[in-house]
Amino acid sequence: MDIMLFHSTYGLRPAVHSAADRLRAAGHRVWTPDLFDGRTFDSVEESRAYREEFGKEGLLKRAVLAAAPYSERGLVYAGLSLGAATAQTLALGDAKARGLLLLHGTSDLAPNASADDLPVQLHVAEPDPFEPDDWLSAWYLQMRRAGADVEVYRYAGAGHLYTDPDLPDYDEEAAEATWRVALGFLGTLEPS
């Protein structure tokens, strides 16, 4: 599969490269665009201040430009936290999208969003302060209403960004379980 993997609010850090390497080792082609022009952050607050310089629309524009050269192939969009929200937005706007792999995050859906049997897999902590239960329930129903084929996996006791070994949220057991399930999911998708 061709996978476009978007980084979290911390930027294109080693954990993103490790995730891409894991996907490549399973036989996938993976792109990891840097939406922050080489900047990485140690806190959500620093990242938020930086992102305010170009706003949500500017971030989305950067993501679209990164994916555009490859979208004709039929991409699987994937992302970590903020990157998951970005991946979701792009996947729902791309009729050729092959799948959507969300790690640690979701995004709101437009009322007229259409996913036409798009395979979607979400992995989140339980509880997750950024993805509360009420939000996730509503998100799931909206995705189903849009036509997506959705699977949700929750990891009790894990921190928000639990797949990043350089963050306090890291949970090795949850991370390994996530990657095992995610690689299985990717193996079920129709190739480009």
Please provide a brief summary of the model:
This protein is α/β, with parallel strands linked by helices.
Low-confidence stretches: none
The main pleated sheet reads as: 6 strands, parallel
Order of helices and strands: EHEHHEHEEHEH
Q: What is the mean predicted local confidence, pLDDT?
A: 95
The general outline is globular
What is the beta-strand fraction? 15-25%
| Alpha plus pi helix count | 6
Secondary-structure blueprint:
Elements: E1 2-6, H1 14-25, E2 29-31, H2 44-51, H3 55-67, E3 76-80, H4 82-92, E4 99-103, E5 119-126, H5 133-145, E6 149-156, H6 172-188
Parallel strand pairs: 1-2, 1-3, 3-4, 4-5, 5-6
Helix pairs in contact: 3-4
How would you describe what is shown here?
- Helices cover 39% and strands 18% of the residues.
- The protein is built from six helices and six strands.
- Helix 3 (55-67) crosses helix 4.
- The longest helix is centred in the C-terminal third of the chain and has 17 residues, at 172-188.
- The protein is globular.
Give short descriptive properties of this protein.
6 helices; six-stranded parallel β-sheet; alpha/beta
